[in-house]
Design goal:
The protein is an alpha/beta fold. The protein folds into 3 domains: 83 residues, SRP54, nucleotide-binding domain (Four Helix Bundle (Hemerythrin (Met), subunit A), Up-down Bundle); 186 residues, Rossmann fold; 143 residues, Signal recognition particle, SRP54 subunit, M-domain (434 Repressor (Amino-terminal Domain), Orthogonal Bundle). It is 57% helix and 9% strand. The protein has 20 helices and 8 strands. The structure holds guanosine-5'-diphosphate and magnesium ion (MG).
Length: 443
């Protein structure tokens, strides 16, 4: 997602690169490009106007034009303002003091309410060892109840339903009673949607809202619908005073407009994003990470989180220690390769690394299991001493390793080079600085 926007924003700012000094007209031209990029990405017009004004003011106020590295400073301002536009920090799910915490899903038909209800139940189970109950209150779509039951079965969460002949209000009332009896700590109510906002739907949702006083009313909107998603959010918010938004289908070919506008327009936080059809594809929304992703600076924190989830804790700590001490060696490299292989498609992972997001070289990276096997062969042909001290790998040692692993010498050289750049990158990452931006500006 967002490739088009990322490319255009980068292009807009590339013009400033290398300039020791930026003239007013350079700045104006850049801002015009940024404005067009955002509008083309279907960001709300008013939001764009405010954004551009803010960035321009700050750029002038900060004396960027006189400063040492104007391009970098402007990237930083754009990054910060994009982050603000999306809400600054992640907002956690509301939680009630006494059980159950009640979450009501709302949204148009097909937005992803039922799927998200299941994803959320799974997340609560996984992360809080919660015992949620799902309530099937969509009686209008014939298959809706079946669908929720299937989702519930998949995530092993009970589903309360009374078929399609009972009024949703009564279903919710009975479902709540059931949850109290069973001491469920969360109740997630899957409601009906319509193709468009209409009175009957809103009345039904408002009645349910008044009955159960949800701790959380999550509006589910489809990111692919761009500005329509924003309008929908406004409509629902006016009627229900929602507490948060879930933006689904961010994995699809979206331009970014919804993600960038919803917070600014409704003043309600995006709490989660759906990034796929699988029930594990629900992520907490982090405005700062999203901004970096949009700017093509990579989503390094998500990468680290993903890595840590698949690493065991001890191993992660060891690796961090190695990065700090700069003692990363070929044994770690091999471990790393195997971990990466376990984590899924390498391309997805590489995209999260700063400077890699739009790196054309990425297109040539193909890391199939065979490659890993070759890397393994090469590393196993090193002596223990060589693995621990890659610096001693002189040409004659390299030739011996090539013979031993039956791989061409060029490949051995290439791999050593890869290793060195990985080490360098890790070193940069561990210094936790603006590696991403530097990378972007220098690439
Ligand atoms: P509802 O009518 O609001 O309950 O929507 P559903 O939960 O039935 O979802 C409608 C369709 O969107 C289904 O085919 C889902 O698999 C799909 N869907 C939901 N969330 C996502 C997402 O984050 N990414 C993708 N690719 N598909 C999604
Ligand atoms: Mg549904």
């Amino acid at each position: 997602a967002f490739e088009g926007l990322t490319e255009r924003l980068q292009k807009a700012m590339r013009n400033l690169r290398g300039k020791g000094k930026v003239s007013e007209s350079d700045l104006r031209a850049t801002m015009r490009e940024i404005r067009l990029a955002l509008l083309e990405a279907d960001v709300n017009f008013g939001v764009v106007r405010k954004f551009v004004k803010k960035v321009q003011e700050r750029a002038k106020g900060a004396d960027v034009l006189e400063g040492l590295n104007p391009a970098q400073q402007i990237v930083k301002i754009v990054d910060e303002e994009l982050t603000k536009m999306m809400g600054e920090t992640a907002v956690p799910l509301n939680k009630s003091d006494k059980i159950p915490t009640v979450i009501m899903m709302a949204g148009l038909q097909g937005a992803g309410k039922t799927t998200t209800a299941g994803k959320l139940a799974l997340k609560l189970k996984d992360e809080q060892k919660a015992r949620p109950l799902l309530i099937a209150a969509d009686i209008y779509r014939p298959a809706a109840i079946d669908q929720l039951q299937q989702v519930g079965a998949q995530v092993e969460v009970p589903v309360f339903s009374m078929g399609t002949d009972v009024d949703p209000r009564e279903i919710v009332e009975k479902g709540m009673a059931q949850a109290k009896e069973d001491h469920n700590d969360y109740v997630i109510i899957d409601t009906a949607g319509r193709l468009q906002i209409d009175e009957k739907l809103m009345d039904e949702l408002k009645d349910i809202q008044e009955m159960v006083h949800p701790d959380e009313i999550l509006l589910v909107v489809d990111a692919m619908t761009g500005q329509n998603a924003v309008e929908t959010a406004e409509g629902f918010n006016d009627a229900l005073d929602i507490t948060g938004v879930v933006l689904t289908k961010l994995d699809g070919d979206t331009r970014g407009g919804a993600a960038l506008s919803i917070r600014a327009v409704t003043d309600k936080p995006i709490k989660f994003v759906g990034q796929g059809e699988k029930l594990t594809d629900l992520d907490v929304f982090h405005p700062d990470r999203m901004a970096s992703r949009i700017l093509g600076m990579g989503d390094i924190l998500s990468l680290i989180e993903k890595t840590q989830k698949d690493y065991d804790q001890k191993q992660a700590e060891e690796m961090a220690e190695k990065m700090r001490e700069n003692t990363f060696d070929f044994n770690d490299f091999l471990d790393q390769m195997k971990q990466i292989q376990k984590m899924g498609p390498l391309e997805d992972i590489m995209k999260m690394i700063p400077g890699m997001a739009n790196n054309p070289a990425l297109k040539n990276v193909n890391m199939d299991p065979k490659d890993i096997a070759h890397i393994e062969a090469v590393i196993y042909s090193m002596t223990a001493q060589e693995r621990e001290n890659p610096d001693i790998l002189n040409p004659s040692r390299r030739r011996r390793i090539a013979r031993g692993s039956a791989r061409p010498i060029q490949e051995v050289n290439r791999m050593i080079k890869q290793f060195n750049s990985m080490k360098k990158m890790m070193n940069k990452m561990s210094n936790g600085n603006m590696a991403g931006m530097e990378n972007m500006m220098n690439s």
